[in-house]
Specification:
Elements: E1 2-8, H1 15-27, E2 32-37, H2 53-65, E3 73-75, H3 88-98, E4 103-109, H4 110-114, H5 122-128, E5 130-134, H6 142-156, E6 160-163, H7 173-181, H8 186-189, H9 193-202, H10 216-224, H11 229-249, H12 253-262, H13 271-280, H14 287-291, H15 297-307, H16 313-320, H17 331-342, H18 351-360, H19 362-379, H20 386-397
Parallel strand pairs: 1-2, 1-4, 2-3, 4-5, 5-6
The structure holds adenosine-5'-triphosphate and magnesium ion.
């Protein structure tokens, strides 16, 4: 296996790191990429407005997840769990034990590469791995990189490869921290959305966003920082669809959008955390909900939307009912329920019929949604929540029918 090791302080991780990571994976044909956040960087003091090691850890995990490369990308806690300064030579020795037969590549940007000879135990580092060096600047100093490669080869027998990255983002964490501290909007452009959202939620680097009054952009970032990256596409799709449905049926497009942005924000919490939130926010649960974690995220998501992000009552209820539906739903509740069901990324038999109906006859579309849910649960041998049954029966009792569709 060919493994890339990408160390750094990641305070915070930014799009420069991530753009480089993606290109290097391709250029070196890496089977695996391991980010190694340093607990205590040996070569620099942490700045005054810093994030804690734990926060940096969570941010690099969010950024790494955002590469959407599954198990090919890992974040290692080797340095975070070691006492004292984080020396790369110790890290590489540990990785070598774990991967005795594999090819290890240390990935270094300009600054790190040019100072490599002065790191702790360079001879040990260069015996344990090969080095891939890349420029952080568009017009990088090729001559300096080449001279350093030559010097390291001659002095330590290093194996060095210089990479030309197709895309370079000339940004640094230092710059981004300064932008954040002075409220410069440009910071958001240089960060993966979930990392930016994490920073806002935790008030890092001197930010002090009022979470109850966020712009759509900032609300998105916060929401995405709470979920797995692979779900973001669905949340975006739901937002788009909810807005379209609101425009079609005379609903409140702003509210539809904001309800959609937050609707799955607690989707990845485990049962004990879900139950704790229900307790905290006084959400009463029935027998079935207490056991089925999938039914809880709509309730806890609604609670977080209201308590943390200041969502209005109607948004609260739209999120609250988005999984099971219920009898006699408001327009906003109907819109979120359907948008979640048929957003553009959904693909299941019958979705096209549902999409067409949703823009022709809202009642029929809802009835079809409820019927399909009931059918699906039955096919999978799962119990159907009584609220879904009463949602369907409510439609039928009002004479809604699918016969002529
Ligand atoms: P700081 O400003 O706090 O020093 P940084 O932006 O330099 O932060 P680090 O965490 O120190 O980020 O860097 C980790 C690694 O990522 C180093 O090898 C560095 O050269 C590389 N790197 C940093 N920024 C970029 C960038 N914009 N493009 C490519 N590589 C980068
Ligand atoms: Mg740096």
């Amino acid at each position: 296996m060919r493994i890339g090791i990408y160390g750094g302080t990641f305070n915070p991780p930014h799009l420069g790191h991530m753009t480089a990571a993606r290109s290097i994976m391709e250029a070196l044909e890496l089977d695996k990429l391991i980010f190694v956040p340093a607990a205590q960087p040996p070569h620099k003091a942490l700045p005054a407005l810093t994030a804690t090691a734990g926060e940096r850890w969570e941010m690099i995990c969010l950024a790494a997840d955002g590469l959407l490369l599954g198990e090919r990308v890992e974040v290692s806690d080797l340095e975070m769990s070691r006492e004292g300064k984080s020396f790369t030579s110790d890290t590489l020795a540990q990785l070598r034990l774990r991967y005795p037969e594999d090819e290890l590549w240390l990935l270094t940007g300009t600054d790190m590469f040019l100072s490599l000879h002065s790191w702790h135990e360079p001879e040990k580092i260069l015996a344990l791995c090969s080095v891939a060096a890349f420029s952080r600047e568009k017009a990088g100093d090729r001559w300096a990189m080449e001279s350093q490669a030559k010097a390291l080869e001659e002095r330590f027998g290093a194996r060095v490869r210089l990479l030309e990255l197709p895309e370079v983002r000339e940004i640094s964490s230092t710059q981004i921290r300064e932008q954040l501290a002075r409220g410069d909007e440009a910071a958001a452009e240089s960060l993966p959305e979930p990392v930016y959202g994490y920073i806002l939620r935790h008030g890092l680097y001197g930010t002090h966003a009022d979470l109850k009054r966020l712009s759509d952009r900032d609300l998105r970032a916060c929401s995405y920082s709470m979920i797995r990256a692979k779900r973001i596409k669905h949340v975006k799709g739901t937002e788009e669809e909810a807005q379209r449905l609101a425009l079609r049926w005379g609903g409140d497009a702003v509210k539809a959008r904001r309800a959609a942005i937050l609707h799955d924000c607690t989707k990845y919490l485990e049962l004990p955390e879900q139950l704790a939130l229900c307790e905290q926010y006084g959400i009463e649960l029935d027998e079935m909900e207490r056991k089925m974690v999938k039914l809880l995220h709509s309730k806890t998501g609604a609670a977080i939307a209201r308590a943390v992000y200041g969502a209005d009552e109607d948004i609260f209820w739209a999120i609250f009912w988005h999984t099971t539906g219920k009898a006699d739903m408001t327009l906003l509740e109907q819109i979120l329920y359907l948008a979640d069901y048929m957003e553009p990324n959904r693909d299941f038999p019958g979705v096209e019929r549902l999409r067409a109906l949703a823009y022709e006859d809202l009642d029929k579309a809802l009835l079809l949604g409820f019927e399909m849910s009931v059918e699906e649960m039955r096919e999978r041998g799962l119990q159907v929540h009584p609220n879904t049954l009463s949602a369907r029966d409510w439609m039928l009792s009002r004479g809604v029918t699918l016969e002529d569709t």
